[in-house]
Write a structure and sequence with these properties.
Blueprint lengths: L2 H6 L18 H11 L16 H14 L1 H15 L55
């Protein structure tokens, strides 16, 4: 995260020093770690040491999620982009890599289906002898 990007965030973040308990880790360090974990294919437990322990990042992520920080961050980013004339409400983009289908959702029958035998005289098959030539009834 660049310094310019970081300068916009502190007003949105919770206070760096909680009222009680142990002082929290640096917000910028943890946020950089969270951004690192969001990279495609990056396992969260392999977080670089410079970004703090992965559990601290995970706890902070979920705590901020419950507090509504991420919604506020997106809303503030949209307001900033809108004020700068950079927001185009006609264009929407969804990342399809996060949409999962059930394993049975991909099981459509392919090609034409074979006709099923109708009930009646033609539906009964004649038993075949394993020793008889093919096509010969026993």
């Amino acid at each position: 995260m660049t310094t310019t990007q970081w300068e916009r965030l502190p007003p949105l973040l919770p206070p760096p020093k909680p009222k009680t308990g142990r002082p929290s880790s640096d917000h910028r360090r943890i946020l950089n770690g969270l951004l690192w974990m969001l990279r495609p294919g990056a396992p969260g437990r392999d977080l670089p040491e410079r970004d703090g322990p992965w559990r601290t990042g995970a706890r902070r992520f979920y705590r901020w999620q419950r507090a509504g920080f991420w919604s506020q961050l997106v809303a503030a980013g949209q307001a900033h982009a809108n004020a700068a004339g950079q927001l185009n409400g006609d264009i929407h983009d969804g990342d399809g890599t996060i949409i999962r289908a059930h394993q049975h959702a991909a099981g459509a029958t392919k090609g034409p289906q074979r006709p099923t035998p109708e009930a009646g005289a033609g539906a009964v098959s004649v038993p075949q002898s394993p020793c008889a030539p093919k096509g010969a009834a026993s």
